[in-house]
Each structure stands twice: as structure tokens, then as C-alpha cells.
Design goal:
By secondary structure, the chain is mainly α. It is about 55% helix and about 5% strand. It contains 24 helices and five strands. α18 crosses α19. The longest helix has 25 residues. It starts with a helix and ends with a helix.
Length: about 500
């Protein structure tokens, strides 16, 4: 049982509640609005919950396919349809049969027929495999979302949706123009369809896809697996390595596993301080005068009071001597690193493409993290919150864009800043993930000497033109000094 689950059980001790209720029901001289039978019935229900919880403790609870948590529904009520509901194709039971996406139902039937024909399968045999496992597959859903469907209807739905997903993904990512012709939809609709496949309320169990693949030849299984990996990585970074979860719950969970693989090291070990080699030789003179020099610097450049914010966004961090660089890995968590380089600092961040699909994609990942039965550390929400800390104004976006951390395919830098400020509102920010990184950045900014030197560099040496202007001013000042000297002492 996880630590998070243990904490939940510690908050509400059902055994203690039962004992208290029994004591209450047998207290003499006490009156109650409930009859004795009602008391006993209520106690039996609580005891049933205790038994159920004890059984759940013995086995790992699998997250269920469910609706977006209520807290996000209320927060994003204005843009809920835009971010969380399918625009073109429904997958699974939650949005099945909605009138605005009925056109795609005809396409799904065609894709299913194409999948069966191309792989020379027997429709009844493939469908029967889904139907035989429907009892197990129903456990993957929250009861609320499947209660209006009988087993036959749900089996047929999962069969058609599963075949459609495999055919669509394989056709779009197999680098075969002939396969693209078979799905017979325009490229714009393909984009909508692929975005819809990654919505929390538009999921089916990954087990359905595995059951359908069992009937394929080994070569075809390998081809579809490759297409699936290209589809997922195409939503992040095609150059990434395969770090997928072996048994994901659904496609959205598979996407998250590519973004947040198993932690390779402790969360608090995110900072790498690069040793400065051969910058100085600690000889006798340096060691003798080091305390005096440090004391003088501290008096001249006092540190700010504890609790004072040293920076706000990427623009101010840049002026404080912190540069940005895309990390070698895309993963959220370990790939965020801060390195202290003397007077300068370097913050490494995973690359992120900002386009029309970014908001719904990451908001649905965050919604998945916030589901009550999903055990996470809110890694995706934490990274978006971290970027929101760095992005307040268009100039902050500009700095991250110039450093190749952000790729703006949305529009102006102002639009990107507004987007991050919008989607990061009221998110669960697990501060522990980036506590070390943020703490070291604040420590770096506390040094007034570093900040002052960085500001001088930023103002006079950040571009070739500013360097030329500085050298020209310095040369003019030097020539003026020489001219004045010669005028005062002509005989020399």
C-alpha cells in the first residue's frame, strides 16, 4: 500500500468511528432522531466499508477511467469544452452518442472494417475476444460512466473504438501514403482526431488494444507498436528515446509515462554545482586576505532579508546572471537542473513546443494526475507551475524562446504568457520536486555582487553592438585623458 493511501486511512479511522457509533447507540439516557434499527443498519454499512477497505489494502488499486475531477470542472467551466471534450471523435463511453460528433461514427466503422480486412481477421473471433473479457474490462471504468450500457453494447463499443485507434495511429505514423488514403480524412481532421485520443474523458483500457493485437502477425504487431510510439513521442519530442510504461492504463497514461519515467534519483538531488577548476590558485596571499575580502564584499553588497523574493520571471533571472538552456532529456523532474558557475548560473529545462494542442494536452495530463485513485507526485502540474513562475510577461517568453527552451508556434509572446498564466491557475504545485532548484536560484540571486556584475554584463556586453559602443566610449575617454595629460604636461 502506498504512503499516500496510508495517510488517507490515518485521516479517517473507520474502526474508531464504528466503536464510537456502537457506544453512542447503547448509551443510556441519550436520545436520538434515529431508531435502534436505523443505528444498527448504519453501523453495518460502515463495517462493510471497513471490510472493503481492508480488501483493497491487500491488492494494488488500478486507476479507473473517469470524468475530469470536479475541481477542474469548476475552475475551467468557461473553457471546459475546449480543453476536455472531444471536438471530432468520441472514444469510450463518456461522450459516446453525443450529437456534435456523430460524423466520426461513420469513419470509425470504416476504419474498423479496414483494420479487419487488412490484417485478414475474422470479425466474430476478434469481437468475441473483447466480449469474453468484458467483465475484467469493466473494472477499468468508474461505475458512473458505464452504468447505462449493458455488456453487449459496451463490448461492441470497445471493439469498434479499439480497432479505430489502431488503424488511425498506424495509418498516420507508418510513413506509408497508401495507408493514409485508406482512412480517407483530411489532414486537419487527423490533427483533431489525434488530439481527441489524448483526452482524459476519451479513453478506453489499453488492455483492449492489447487484446486486438493478439490476433496479428508478429511483423504487424511490431509495426503497430512502432506507430504507437511515434504517435506518443510526436506529441512530445520525436527525438526522445522509448521510456514507456510496460502496462499503461490507457493512451493518456502512456503519454505521461514518456514525460515522467521512473525517478532515477532522489527528487532533492536536482542541482549540479559544477566545480570551478583552475580559476585561481589558493596561495598564501589569497588565504590570508580571503576573510577580509569576503567581509568587505558582504558590507558593500548586503544580502536581502530572508523571505524577500529575489526574482519574478525569466527576464529578471537573466539580468541576475542566470542563463537558460534546454536539457538533454525531456523528462519532467530530473531534467530540471540548476548549475552555479561562479558569477553566472545556468538553469536547464525540458524543451516545450507551445501550439494549439499544448493546453488541452497538458491540462488533461494534470486532470489525470488529480484523479483520486491515481498515485503521482503531480510532476506535470509541478512543471507547468514552475514555468508559470518563470513567465509573467512577454519578455519572459522571449528569453526562454531565445534559449530554445520554448518553441512558440501559437502566435505572439504575449499569447504564450497569457496561456501559461491561465492554465497554471490554482494548480497543485508539489514544491518538493523543485525545492532544491528554486532554493539554489534564490541563493544565487541573494549575492548582490553576482547580480551587479550580471547587470553590467547584460547592459554593456550582451550584444555585439553594446560591446562596440562600450569600447568606443572607453576609447574616447582614454583619448580625452591622454589629450588632457599632454595639455597639462607638454614637455613630457
Amino acid at each position: 500500500m502506498s504512503e499516500a493511501s496510508k495517510e488517507c486511512h490515518n485521516l479517517i479511522r473507520l474502526d474508531d468511528l464504528i466503536n464510537a457509533l456502537k457506544k453512542l447507540s447503547h448509551e443510556e439516557g441519550k436520545t436520538s432522531n434515529l431508531t435502534s434499527d436505523a443505528h444498527e443498519k448504519f453501523i453495518e454499512e460502515i463495517e462493510g466499508l471497513v471490510t472493503q477497505n481492508q480488501q483493497q489494502e491487500k491488492k494494488e488499486i488500478q486507476p479507473k477511467i473517469q470524468k475530469v475531477p470536479a475541481v477542474l470542472r469548476q475552475r475551467d467551466e468557461k473553457h471546459f469544452k475546449k480543453y476536455y471534450e472531444p471536438r471530432w471523435i468520441s472514444i469510450g463511453p463518456i461522450h459516446h452518442g453525443e450529437p456534435n460528433i456523430q460524423l466520426a461514427e461513420k469513419y470509425k466503422l470504416k476504419w474498423t472494417a479496414t483494420f479487419i480486412a487488412d490484417n485478414k481477421l475474422e470479425t466474430k473471433i476478434v469481437y468475441q475476444k473483447i466480449k469474453e473479457n468484458i467483465a475484467e474490462l469493466k473494472k477499468c471504468f468508474d461505475q458512473e460512466v458505464i452504468e447505462k450500457y449493458d455488456d453487449n453494447t459496451l463490448s461492441l463499443m470497445l471493439f469498434v473504438d479499439g480497432c479505430s485507434i489502431l488503424q488511425l495511429v498506424d495509418s498516420c505514423h507508418a510513413n506509408d501514403p497508401e495507408k493514409m488514403k485508406k482512412i480517407n480524412i483530411k489532414p486537419g481532421l487527423v490533427s483533431f482526431a489525434q488530439q481527441d485520443l489524448l483526452l482524459l474523458e476519451n479513453q478506453i483500457p489499453y488492455q483492449v488494444l492489447e487484446l486486438l493485437r493478439e490476433n496479428l502477425t508478429p511483423t504487424k504487431k511490431k509495426d503497430i507498436k512502432s506507430s504507437m510510439e511515434k504517435f506518443i513521442l510526436g506529441n512530445i519530442d520525436p527525438s526522445l528515446k522509448n521510456n514507456f510504461k510496460e502496462n499503461p492504463n490507457h493512451l493518456l497514461d502512456l503519454l505521461r509515462s514518456a514525460l515522467v519515467p521512473g525517478q532515477k534519483k532522489d527528487d532533492n538531488n536536482n542541482t549540479n554545482v559544477i566545480p570551478r577548476k583552475n580559476l585561481r590558485r589558493k596561495g598564501y596571499i589569497y588565504n590570508r586576505f580571503k576573510p577580509i575580502i569576503i567581509g568587505w564584499i558582504n558590507k558593500l553588497f548586503p544580502k536581502p532579508k530572508r523571505g524577500q523574493q529575489c526574482f519574478r520571471g525569466a527576464g529578471e533571472l537573466k539580468k541576475a546572471g542566470i542563463n537558460f538552456r534546454p536539457s538533454k532529456e525531456y523528462y519532467m523532474g530530473d531534467s530540471v537542473k540548476f548549475s552555479s558557475l561562479g558569477l553566472a548560473g545556468r538553469l536547464e529545462l525540458p524543451r516545450l513546443t507551445v501550439d494549439d494542442s499544448m493546453a488541452p494536452k497538458f491540462l488533461n495530463l494534470i486532470a489525470y494526475e488529480m484523479c483520486p485513485d491515481v498515485e503521482t507526485k503531480y510532476e506535470v502540474a509541478a512543471y507547468i507551475s514552475l514555468l508559470d513562475l518563470l513567465i509573467d510577461y512577454p519578455n519572459d517568453v522571449k528569453e526562454l524562446r531565445k534559449s530554445h527552451v520554448l518553441f512558440n508556434q501559437l502566435g505572439s509572446d504575449k499569447e504564450v504568457a497569457n496561456l501559461f498564466n491561465e492554465i497554471a491557475t490554482d494548480l497543485v504545485f508539489n514544491f518538493e520536486i523543485y525545492k532544491k532548484v528554486i532554493g539554489d536560484m534564490e541563493k544565487h540571486c541573494e549575492s548582490k555582487m553576482r547580480t551587479w556584475m550580471a547587470q553590467v554584463y547584460y547592459a554593456h556586453f550582451s550584444s555585439p553592438w553594446s560591446i562596440v559602443a562600450f569600447l568606443a566610449a572607453f576609447l574616447a575617454l582614454a583619448l580625452t585623458a591622454i589629450q588632457t595629460w599632454l595639455a597639462l604636461f607638454p614637455s613630457l
